[in-house]
## 1
Amino acid sequence: MTNYTLFPIGIITGIFFDAIFGFLDNFRGIERKFFGKRIHHSIYGLLLIFVGLFIYREFLIGLGFGIILSHTARLKKLLFIEDVSVKKRE
């Protein structure tokens, strides 16, 4: 039996978690870099969706979507991994 009310609760919780992650990243200046690539916290959303395929389906998938949607809306582009080894031209 599935409980479909957990999906929108997961999305709202994901938006809230993304706001916290974004605030902490900006406040503390944290950048997660790995081999010249910057890992955005929206990658956690992908991981949560993948884990949600196996356990706590509705809530974890909603949580993952909420993180990804909020991060994409804030940056105005969909980013998971960004190449920072090349200097950007302005």
## 2
Amino acid sequence: MPVINGIYTRNFPAYPNTLADSTIIVVAETGNNITYRTTYGALRALSSVSNATTSELTSAQLTAAYPAAVVPFEVICTDITDNPLIYKKGITGWYSIPLGTIS
């Protein structure tokens, strides 16, 4: 995958575990703030993840499972029975977005 033409800065409190990926090219670091270059796939991985859970998740479960999530990180849960959801990390916590079927 090609490297994106640009440099990005994010707060990664779980660094270096979050960036244990060869597609992340660290340019500079100041505390938890990491300036990096990356590939398209790695950038997408930093912004969302698919979760195969079949039941709804709590804020505590999401925080425990994704401690390095930064706004606007998304957890896509399409396997939840009767009510698939996208959980989105917000400034004040987690939010759920219901997914409906398009006919």
